[in-house]
Amino acid sequence: MEKFVINGKTRLKGEVSISGAKNAAVAILPATLLVNGICTIENLPNISDINIYCDILKTLGVKISRPEPNTVIVDTRFVSCNDAPLEMTGKFRASYYLIGSLLGRCHKAVVGMPGGCKLGARPIDQHAKAFEALGATVEIGQGKIMATAEKLVGGSIYLDTVSVGATINAILASVLADGTTTIENVAKEPHVVDIANFLNTMGADIHGAGTDIIKINGVKELHGGTYSIVPDQIEAGTFMLAAVATRGDIIIKNCITKHLDPLSAKIREMGAIVEEISGDTIRVCCNERPKNVDIKTLPYPGFPTDLQSPMGVALSTAEGTSMIAETIWESRFQYTAELNRMGAKINVQGKVAFFEGVDELYGSIVSASDLRAGAALVIAGIAANGTTEVHNLQYIDRGYENIEEKFRALGADIKRVTE
Ligand code: EPU
Prior knowledge:
The protein has helices at 22-31, 48-59, 86-89, 97-106, 125-133, 164-174, 190-201, 233-245, 261-269, 308-316, 334-341, 371-383, 393-399, 403-409; strands at residues 2-7, 13-17, 38-42, 63-68, 71-75, 108-112, 137-141, 144-148, 156-158, 180-184, 205-207, 213-217, 225-228, 249-253, 273-278, 281-285, 294-296, 321-325, 345-349, 352-356, 365-367, 387-391, 413-418. By secondary structure, it is α+β, with helices and mostly antiparallel strands. Strands 21-22-1-23 form a four-stranded mixed β-sheet, with helices on one face. A four-stranded mixed β-sheet has the order 2-14-16-15. The chain has a four-stranded mixed β-sheet with strand order 4-5-3-13, covered by helices on one side. α10 (308-316) links the parallel β17 (294-296) and β18. Uridine-diphosphate-2(N-acetylglucosaminyl) butyric acid binds at residues 23, 26, 93-94, 117, 121-127, 161, 163-166, 187, 305-306, 328, 371-372, 399.
């Protein structure tokens, strides 16, 4: 077992470069199954979810080489339409993209019920509804999802809930379908747009990604090509909030500043400086105790749920009392119990948490309950007075590339220790 040992209290200062987006990468890799050819994917984050995905694709006959840690060459000319290995697909959430991809390519998909971070109920009814609208039959039981279709025919899909996963799965299943598909009430996250851009680069005909309605004209086949994954706006936001929480001064490079607008607005409201140096570089500087703010998590372009916990760390030592309402996931306040062990005063009442700002956090032994909670606890450890141990690093490694090296380069005293 590994843990981080962090000696606070450090004011982070310097530059950090952002990796490719995890939540785009975990959709683009399975989307290559729709291609009959060779795709080179660049700016791939080097994280454990990607390693698992490559291993799963290999079991489906895909040839994968990795000339560099952030580049993969994926040859999908000889895909075997077997069941995806249940023990591997059950390990993480994004395995559900195999359903849309295999359905599109093979007209048949058998995938283990997705696992992943425990954020509360994570239904997939909207994914099933989308596949059925295209003519597929979907069965869920015995720990797996089975989707089959003699033929996929374009249809109208109206999502009851704005869902990133269902939006992307609906796109994946309809790219090679006969005729036109429209998907309404879709997710508009940058990674949704990135999947559409990837597929269009390979010959798909997708319009409207990033707006409320996506229209897909089915094409006969997709060809290979080269694509570079969009920068990770959640990783960028994590470092922006690390600057606020540690009263630091960080220049964040290789990000798309526009994607960070919902967060930049809140950080400015907290009294910190957010300076857009260029379209791909942003600086966050916090010289004083942040002001209290209220936050409500919403689908993009609202405040992202994935930055709720790092924001919670910054609010723990802000002035007065702040409130966060979590509207996407029912169990995303587990990190607050760990922060309270570090001296925070957070009171959770159902979907709302109240953060009474304390003067400072102090070092403690804490455990990550999910990926973003893990990143939040690392930031808390860097900000806190004394030594903090963060356990359950397997969550953090799923989604942050070289997190300790990036924080160390900003001045943090953090080391990975094997117990
Ligand atoms: N929902 C349904 N039915 C469905 C699908 C979703 O009711 O069929 C509900 C969910 O229960 C939730 C809401 O819709 O309340 C939004 O869920 P969504 O489908 O958008 O989430 P997801 O696709 O499972 C992705 C990210 C999450 C991120 C959410 C929201 C991936 C692999 N995961 O999950 O990322 O929190 O969108 O933005 O893209 C993370 O990176 O730490 C993470 C958890």
